[in-house]
User: Fold these one by one.
Assistant:
Number 1:
Amino acid sequence: MRNQNTKPHAIVTGILCRSAASFTRFLGTRAESLLAALRRVRLQSDQSNLSDLSDLSDKIAAPPPDRVLAFRLTAARYHG
C-alpha cells in the first residue's frame, strides 16, 4: 500500500533527478577522458614538435561499448 503522504509528482521528480544525475556522471566521464586525451596530445606535440595530429581520434577514448548499447536500446524503446 502506498504512503498517502507521498505525492505522485514527488516520485516522478525523484526518478528524473536520479536519471539526470546518472547522465551527468556519464557526460562528466566522457568530458574528463576527452580533456585528458587533449592534454596528452598537447604534451606530445610540445615535446616532439608534432605537426600532424591525424591520429587524434585514436587518442580520444570512446565510450564503453556497454553504455553505447544501453543508450541505443533505450532510444529504440522510446522511439521505436
Number 2:
Amino acid sequence: MQVYSVYQYKFKKIFLSCSCCCLMTQMMDQKRSLKRRKKEKAVKKRRSSLGSKVTAVILKTTKKFVLEMKTSSKQVHPSSERARWR
C-alpha cells in the first residue's frame, strides 16, 4: 500500500479495482502524455493567435499610414489629388 499512497487521492477508482503495479504505471504514463499533448496544443494555439494578432496590428498600422499619406498629399497638392480620384 505504500507505493499507492502517493497517487491514491488522484486515482481512487483505479486502486479500488486493481492492485497491479504495471497498470498503475501505465495509467500514470497515459496521464503524463495527455498533459504533455494538452500543453503542446496550448502553445500552438497561443503562437497562432499571437501571429494573427501581429498581422492584424500590421494591417491596421498600414491602413492608418496609407490614410495619412492620402490626407497629407491632399493638403500638399489638392488639384492633382482631385484629378486622380475623379
Number 3:
Amino acid sequence: MVNDFYVKNLIESWGSIRQFAKEIGCSYEAARKMRDRNSISPKYWNIIIQLSESKGPPWVLR
C-alpha cells in the first residue's frame, strides 16, 4: 500500500502558508517552495513534528 503524503496537505492543516511559515520559523517564500516541491527541508522536520503533536493534525502518527 502506498502512503500518499502531500506537503500541501500538511501546510493547509496550518490554515495558510503564511501561518505555517511563521510557526516553523521560515520565510513565506521558503514555505511556498516546500509546498511546490512537495518536500520539506530537513532542517524544519523536528519543529514541524513538535508543533503537529501539540496541534494534533490527523496525519501525525503516534
